[in-house]
Amino acid sequence: QSLATSRNTTTVSPRVTTGFVEHEFYTAKDFPVLTKETDIELKPFRLWIPLPLIGQLRWNHMTATQGYAVELNDMHGKLKSIKNYANAVDGTKSTLESSVQYIYKTKTAYVDEGTDRRAVSKIDNLVDVLGPEYIYADKMVANTNLGVNGNDGVQKIIGEEYEFFTDQRQTKSISVNIGLDFNTEVFAAFPIPCPWPALGTSDVDMRTAVTNKIIHKAGILEKKIASDGTSTVETKNIKFDSKSGRPLLTTVTNNYDAPIYKYEMPAQWTHENMGAAYENIGFSFIGTITGMDPA
Predict the structure, then answer these.
(1) Angle at CA 53, nearest 5°, toward 52 and 56?
(2) Partner of 85 for a Cys bridge, out of 20, 40, 76, 255, CB 3.0 to 4.6 A?
């Protein structure tokens, strides 16, 4: 984690009296890039056919496949907390006066560091969502099943983008050796020519197929905790819009630790023409205007 401390050094007395403000940020150490890979699958094919007194035929083929998955996130540099400290007599920070913590929806993952395994945070993009549903034809109504307890809602992955591509390569080498040797044998004073053929082939083929899956994950703010030393207010996002990912149902605890619910309904749930831009992008029409004075 990264920590930045700021203080006001413009004072009329030798002592600083305005205190300290600490900004704490998430870093790539808290949310590292996660990688996975499959075992290499090898499919060799080898064949050798000897040709007695002539040569040989060889085939040496190899096919290898492997898959990789790389998980990226945007948590590096995001604000983790803001803490305000009082100033001590000697100019150092004293007691904590107020703070704000930003907690994102995460789960635990493990990364290998040499012979050790370290537990790290991994973004969890599976959230409870709210969305419209059609009950009657040509009539859109909102889903009133809020699922406050998280047991009767619908879950969906939001804030994730995927890239998938493959790399396929082939290297092939074929060599053919053909020869003919001559020898002359003398039998009973008569020369007899003896040709001796030679044949050799080599077929080497290497094929690889590698699949790569890149996952881009955006951090989802789960709750924010604000404290001023005497009271603590917690704001928690419970339900999200199934299309935009915006929080629709939130709770705020007051000074008596009682939750106060806030619910927002998107306009497109009741007004179809106020939906997302992708629903009518590229829309065009032809119209005719009549009854106008040309002058």
Answers:
(1) 60
(2) 20
